[in-house]
Amino acid sequence: GGWGAAPGGYGAPGGAPQGYPGGPAPGQPMPNYPGAPAGGPAMPGYGGGVPSNPQAPAIPVNKGYRGSIKDFPGADPLKDVEVLRKAMKGFGTDENAIIELLGSRSNKQRVALIAAYKTTYGKDLIRDLKSELSKDFEDLVIAMLQTPTQFDASELREAIKVGMDWCDLT
């Protein structure tokens, strides 16, 4: 036995049927309580696998937002590359001129500078900037001249390289 149990250890004292006070006897449905849904293909049981019609959560997307830097009105890629060339010519580099120019142009306008520089000077803008700049500022300027896809690819490449270097250390 045990506390409150009938002789033999099962059931309530005196052999009354177990259940909720005032409720139906065990095995009988609860009154005014909806029954369990019928099993079948529309309602698979537990362990039924992947839902047949998965739905992604609805996330509101503001399709009108395109970043905070807008196209610079009246920007001329040929004049802009002239500013960049002057900033890199001579002794030292005018980093402020590079910052002012690239910081005020949209990505679309900055990417166009690569072709304009090649057309005007017959040189590679990226190579010239790399030879003039260093460290984090070089990385930033080069990143600003990449399309979003090029930037993503270069970041992935760098992450994989760092991951592979880390694996070599362990």
Automatic annotation (TrEMBL):
Comp. bias (Pro residues): 23-34
Superkingdom of this protein's organism: Eukaryota
PROSITE patterns attached to this UniProt entry: ANNEXIN_1, ANNEXIN_2
Biased composition (Gly residues): 1-22
Coiled coil: none
Keywords of the record: Annexin, Calcium, Calcium/phospholipid-binding, Repeat
Domain notes: A pair of annexin repeats may form one binding site for calcium and phospholipid.
PANTHER family documented for this protein: ANNEXIN
UniProt name for this protein: Annexin
Species of the source: Goodea atripinnis
